[in-house]
Amino acid sequence: MAKELKELTSKDANYAQWYQDLVIKAGLAENSAVRGCMVIKPYGYAIWERMQRILDDKFKETGHENAYFPLLIPKSFLSREADHVEGFAKECAVVTHYRLKNAPDGSGVVVDPAARLEEELIIRPTSETIIWNTYKNWIQSYRDLPILVNQWANVMRWEMRTRLFLRTAEFLWQEGHTAHATREEAEEEAIKMQGVYADFAENYMAVPVIRGVKTASERFAGAVETYTIEAMMQDGKALQAGTSHFLGQNFGRAFDVTFIDRNGKTDYAWASSWGVSTRLVGALIMAHSDNNGLVLPPHLAPVQVVIIPIYRSAEQLAAISEKVDRIAARLRELGVRVKFDSDDTKKPGWKFAEYELKGVPVRLAMGGRDLENDTVEIMRRDTLEKETRPCAGLEEYVRDLLEEIQSGIFRKALDHRARRTVRVDTYDEFKERIEEGLFIMAHWDGTPETEERVKNETKATIRCIPLDTADAEPGRCMVTGRPSARRVLFARAY
Amino acid sequence: MAKELKELTSKDANYAQWYQDLVIKAGLAENSAVRGCMVIKPYGYAIWERMQRILDDKFKETGHENAYFPLLIPKSFLSREADHVEGFAKECAVVTHYRLKNAPDGSGVVVDPAARLEEELIIRPTSETIIWNTYKNWIQSYRDLPILVNQWANVMRWEMRTRLFLRTAEFLWQEGHTAHATREEAEEEAIKMQGVYADFAENYMAVPVIRGVKTASERFAGAVETYTIEAMMQDGKALQAGTSHFLGQNFGRAFDVTFIDRNGKTDYAWASSWGVSTRLVGALIMAHSDNNGLVLPPHLAPVQVVIIPIYRSAEQLAAISEKVDRIAARLRELGVRVKFDSDDTKKPGWKFAEYELKGVPVRLAMGGRDLENDTVEIMRRDTLEKETRPCAGLEEYVRDLLEEIQSGIFRKALDHRARRTVRVDTYDEFKERIEEGLFIMAHWDGTPETEERVKNETKATIRCIPLDTADAEPGRCMVTGRPSARRVLFARAY
């Protein structure tokens, strides 16, 4: 087994360190010279590209178009929406000058004080303000609505404590920004996109999610309602995997975006916004991977099947290659992403470890005996199970196996979550059990004070008020004993 | 004809205004609240997305992978390569602070002076420096080479005079950054990517280009050689449509990126970089469009065929729709991007003008008489020619017509360039004829002084020293009479 692989910290010994090691050793990302900003390496970016392509198709299927808005936002825009400025204007990158000049002492370049901007510009932490300032010119009448626009972009939030993919100062994301003529339509849009995200998480990432709404204190700054999908990581902590916001008329009002409705009446436009980011790559890793490396769901794996030849002579390699080329061609016809690794400078054992580390879902190996018997050895990455099968019908078998792995990974994550989700009725029990790394369904009196107290005392937050009705019976708050309409989801979170 | 269309300035009256009007009225882009930064609207972005998809496929076919590097670059990085800093460090957006705070007087937010960065950060004008600083950790041995990486990103250069798509402070682009073990390989890479760009320009954008190398004074800051493709716009001016740079060991040296070669010797890595940007959308518009609006080459048109029903009753529309649905389905099977516009609120005449403005290559119209005769009216956007054809075999006809339009547009641009390219031997004739808007092939003595003089006196620059041998015979410089190895391409440029 390769040296690097051996050095992967064990998940149980130190989950955080295991994650960090894995991201680095699998070649997904690394820290850069700029504090808090990561370099996304080719293999990590290939996963993000797969995510992008699938999500982009889904956005277009649901009627959205892409556009692009400026990176920089005039400082004053942020102050236009009162809640928004509190949430976003504080920790952000501020552009104050537009020119450097040679240092008088010849030591490189310095800021030219004469090139100070009249108004400072902020690198977008999110684009509601600049976009709604633009929509003002696009919207006059109900005939101009809805506007269904998405943008793929980089954004920046000056985070103090960062972690590759999960929390970085700069990250990549998509942000949808829609404008509507009615409240109902805007709310429907927000709920629809939460559904798109949930579908993507479950059917592509193989990560089961709980759909719900955020409490007032966890809402997006400027939103009337925030819809979320919450996933459980292997350590029992929650990760917010995507959010979708019903913004009411808050941005319409802040940027004076009015329209004439069907009845000739003037009203402010209604808004939604929604986004997912490169954080999803972190979620993908933490949801499925193991001590041997990544476990990638086939629907997102850049390489789904790797084929490795095991040979003693050039003739043997030629014979194997001939066979493999046919198998690979047929797999590609079936839509499978295949790589034949015949690199001469690396030993099969090294390759086995490498592709395990990289989470390739299926490995095929063909050696001298396989050649004689017309067979191939198949290993599935999720269970590490091996079997030897005849070459006849292999391609269809592998295609089906990929689907089986996809659903197997999902089922495993679902079982894991089921085992680690409990109902708790007293605050004492809650404080004890939250240490185990659980999703806890408990009653809450609906006040921000109680929510805050639980957070301060246990580091657990209300991840969401779930949309499903399984825990919708009324009860009494575990902390205050006051009436509660339904149980909500508490967990510690990334 | 629609009101907006009539208001398009005529190309001959004012080419610059015609361009500006067209970009706005066709819904491609508009200026934003941030000086010099544009909003790329959905239709403009759809064209850019088509370009991206095609180029990205070509980059991958030639062995490149995508990655992502930080937006912000430490100020000191720019000074590491002496020429580079001169070219790029001057007009750029400088981040000096990382926090805002509430203004003491309650009037919004102000920069928090306590949150000053120790070292200022620059929004990338191009990423050689941050990338080579990263490559230092990726490269130890010749086995780690080549590195063939591309990134799709936004960049920023604080331009004083901006123009939608052609020159904006922020723009979108791709930048390839490769590292090699030998000089030959790095040079080959730069030339290969110039070829990829030329192929894209000619076969997708339908824009003929001249391949060449830049003179020393027009080279990329930090390059040993800059390869360029130069296109002629309809007004006879040149537009640099893509560049590819052989960077020698300049960045390897500046960032101390060394490797052990096959013989155990340590050497600096060799580099290339190459990029094209949203500027190409501007080139596309200026190369082909006319006084009726855009003319888009079918290979890049977001919608290739629009079908418009002309009807007097709901029954007639239903009958047309049934027929059109079959035609549209069959066209999609043939890989054609079709839109059926049955929007009830717009008249056919309005739609005709709208899709002409938007440059949809083929328009099909079906009315009552067509229904009776089983025919359809076809108009091609490039020539505005109309014909009526039977529905039988229509789809194959349209598919082939799209290819004919593609090559027709290219041929037209090629003829235009041929007519406006001349050889000139005296500086007097040069000064006269450059006013006509021409590509002028003339002899030059190879000195930056002569080049500068021509630029100052005529606003014409040497666009490139062409790679082809048509004008490779020696002669005498038109300005100084000194010996010249070959004619070079002079033109005024965007």
UniProtKB/TrEMBL annotation, chains A, B:
Keyword Oxidoreductase tagged: no
Key words of the record: Aminoacyl-tRNA synthetase, ATP-binding, Cytoplasm, Ligase, Nucleotide-binding, Protein biosynthesis
Enzyme Commission designation: 6.1.1.15
Molecular function, one GO term: ATP binding
A GO cellular-component term linked to this record: cytoplasm
SUPFAM superfamilies in alphabetical order: C-terminal domain of ProRS, Class II aaRS ABD-related, Class II aaRS and biotin synthetases
Limits of the Aminoacyl-transfer RNA synthetases class-II family profile domain: 30-297
UniProt note: domains: Consists of three domains: the N-terminal catalytic domain, the anticodon-binding domain and the C-terminal extension.
Name the UniProt record assigns to this protein: Proline--tRNA ligase
Organism: Tannerella sp. oral taxon BU063 isolate Cell 6/7/9
Lineage: Bacteria, Pseudomonadati, Bacteroidota, Bacteroidia, Bacteroidales
